[in-house]
Amino acid sequence: MTVFLDSTAAAELNGKPGKQAIKAEYRGKVLVGGGAGFTGSVDLDLHFANAEPNANRWDYGVGFSHGNEFALWVESHPASGSAEVAVILKKLDWLKSKLRSPGYEGLAALTKAAEEKGEIPFRWLYKGKTSFRASGREARQLAQKGMKLPERSIRVG
Question: What does the pLDDT look like over 139-152, one tens digit per residue?
C-alpha cells in the first residue's frame, strides 16, 4: 500500500491503484514525468453521490510520488464561462471541508505536502473552450482560493 491509499482507507474512501479511479475520458489528461509516479486515486464524486446528491462535489484525488508522496485534487468541469468559477469554488469549499473532517488527516497532510513541493493542490481540468485570461477577474477569484485557471492537462514531475 501507499500512503495515499492508506489515507483513503482511513477516510473510508475507495482508493484505487494508479489512475484507475479517474474516468477514462480524463485519465490521459493527468500525466507524470521526470521520475514522478502515481500512488493512487479516488473518485470522490462517485463515493458521495448517494449520501450528498445535491452537493457540489469535487471529482478526484490523485496521489503522486516524486521524492515524497503528495496529493493533488482534480476537478473535471467545463470552463465555458465565468458562472463556472462560482461552481468550482463551491466544489472547492466542499472538498476543503472534507479535508478538515475526522479521518481525513492523512489526505490533508498529503495536500500540504503538495504545497510544500510547490504544487498547486487544487486543479481544474477542462475540455472544450474557455475564454478566461490570466489577467481576468476569474483568474483573481481562483488565485484568492489557491487555484489557477483551468488546464487541458495536468503534469507532475
Answer: 999 999 999 999 99
